Structures are given as structure tokens and as C-alpha cells.
Amino acid sequence: MKAFRYVNVWVFIGIICLLAVANAIAPAPAELLETENRMATPKPVLTAAHVFDGTYFGTYDDYFADHFILRDEWLRINRIVSALNGSSGGSAPQVVTFEGANVAAKWTPDVGQAVVDDSYADGSTTQKATLQMTDESSTNEDEARLAEGEAQQFDNWGKLLIYGDSVMEINTANPEANAHYAAAINAYWERFHDTSNVYSLLIPTQIEFLEDDAYREMSASQRETIDDMRTKLDDGVQFVDVYDVLAAHTSEYIYFRTDHHWTQLGAKYAFEVLAEAVGGEVPAWLNTLVPVDVPGYLGSLYTATSLEALAAHPDTVTYYKGLPDHEMEDEAGNRIEDGNVYVLRWLETPQKYGVFLGGDRAYTQIETNAGTGRRFLVLKDSYANALTPFLTGIADEIIVIDPRLYTDDVDHLIKAHQITDIIFVNYALVNRWDGYAGLYEGLLAPEIH
Asked: How many Å apart are CA 217 and CA 22, to the nearest integer?
């Protein structure tokens, strides 16, 4: 019996050693974790300061978790087990915790500055999806309190609502982050208004238009978030309000059910508003585009939950043929893929939303024959990926910058490319945290006095 115990010990040690070796020799994962839409934590630099203030070991834990061998498979199994453990077996709405969508990974809110030496990350934790509420009784209690008009505060940071065969992020109000976001956009206006127009699009998400009042009101009003930000913009910044046009088309397929993004149909409606703001009219060629449907898409929020109700009703990704001629390039002028804003190979993968621009890249440049004399700089999150293809008909050149990935300043781009229009495109939930404002400010070159 004692010998058997020793065998157990050596087997356990052997497994630990095997995992250590496997992690050491495994290929590094992608810098951007596609299934969570956030940056992988970089390996921290060992310094005395970081050891003594505790940031080194905490960040190394996050780095190790992000780079663990077969990480996505372990997370998938964990989500399935967690869902089974908490599932009531019914179809009642559920709330789950979640981290990942559009995370701003280069910003450290607790110290109020962007991480510039990249010796440690922002402490973003591994994505979680854990069941919080599934039983009918708690659901009815929440509905009753809302119906009675009680002032109710939901601790809904980083949570998802599973409603029927749809999953959607719950918004939380953050007035300070909203103000900071507006201030960041104002900084661009103040610096570049002599040469460039500045536009802002803040896009509401699916939960804002949920017909069930009880569950919609679990989420902070995005109309209020958007209006609050708008009032803080300088008069020179042109706010492009797409809320009403999306509200008018909620009976159509303008949002995915298993993903936090809008569909390209939703982006198309928003483009009409933007085109009028920029050029005074909606281009006629927009009505000649031909939709192409690709079924079988289970998006990032399905990945977070692995619920069968979602898997049984996958989404369809639609893109539009017939765009004006264009060429998509990287910063060195090399063609990206085949030069098309639709990277069709992504449609053969689980991350089908990557068909738009080929996913999130630090820098993308698109040359067109539009002949409008306009040159756009698009500063964005991934909501802009579905919108940008339509810009090929109203701008001669489009530069797309993802502040989560781009490490240079944009001042030289604006000057070298003679940018006429700077367009900020984000979904409204970006202002639940202070990160994106800091990232945008970090793209501005330091002023020399």
C-alpha cells in the first residue's frame, strides 16, 4: 500500500513536469485573444519595484493563465460544467458574469495613466462565464420590484443576459468614464480642427431595444449614456446619432443573437446617417449592393456561455457584394490578404465576424477610386469593422487604427496623409470603463511647449 502511495506521488509530479515542459515549448498564442476580444497579458519584466509592490507576481499569474497550453479547450470545458452546474433546465432568462468584449488592455484605470513601458499589463483577468440567476422565483421577484417602481441597483458590471435564444451584454452607467471619453475626443478637435473634421459615433447595443421592460431595465439606459456624452463634446465635434435609425429597424436582423456585435445590416443603416453627415446625401450605389448570407455562426457571447439554447439557433453572417473598387493594405503598403475589405477565409472559421477587415488589426489602410477628396482616419473598436467597408464609396483613403493594438502616435498619420475627417466609432458599452478614453489620448503625440 505504501508503494502504491509513492506511485501516486511520482505520477502527480510527472504530470506537473510534463505540463511545465509543454507550456515552455508551446507556441505563443495570438496577441489578441479572438474568442474574448481582448489582449493576452504580456510577460512582465522582472524589476525590484514590481516585485515589492506586488504587481509582478499578480501579472505573472495572468500571463501564465493566458498562455497555458490548450487554454481555450480548458475554458470551454469549464464553461460547460459551470452552465450544467447552475442550470435550472428551464427557459427562464439567466444572468452570467463575463469579461472580454472590447476590453481596453493598455489602460490602467487605478493609476489613471496608460501603460507605456509594457512591463506589466492592466491586470485583466481570464474570461469567466458563471451562472448567477436561473430560477423562476428570483426572476419573478426582480420583475415585481421593477413593476412596483422601486429604485433598484443591479451589480451588473461585466454581466450577460441570456434571454430566449439571445445573449447580450448588460450596460452599467459610468459618468466619469463617459466624461473622460468625451474629453479624449475633444482633445482631437482642439489639436486638429484646422485641418480635419471630427465625428463621433456611439452605437447602442441589442439590450437597449429589448421589449421586455423588466429585463431591459436591468441595463443602464444607453440613450442616457449617449446623450450624456454628447452634451460634453465641444461644439465643433459632429456627433452622428445612429440611435433612432437603429431603433426604427429593431424588427430586422441588425444585431447578432450570440455575439456582442451588430450585423452588417445594422452597420449599413448607421452608414446612411454618417454619409449624410459627411457628404450631405446617401450614395445611390448603396441600394445596388447584393447581400450574401453565411449561416452557422456562434459568436463571442456563445463562447462565453456554451448554452445549448444558443447553439440550437446559430447566427447568420451577411456581407454585401458590389462595393466600390478598393485595395486594403498594411502600414508598409503590402496587400492584406487579396486586398478586399471582406476576408472570406474567416467565414470558414468559428470567428466569422473576422470577415470584416480580417478582424482587429493595429493598422489598416484602404485606397479607393471614390474621387471625393476625403481621407478618413477611423479610430475604433470592432463595431467599426462591419461599418468600414461602406466607407470605400465616400473616401479616397481610409486609415483604420485600433488603439488596443497600435503603439505609435497618430499625429504623423494625420499630417502625412492629409486626413480630412477623423471618425470615432465605438459601441456604447465602451464607456462602462475608463480604458478607451485613455487609449485614444495615448495615440496623441506629446505636445512640445
From this structure: 47
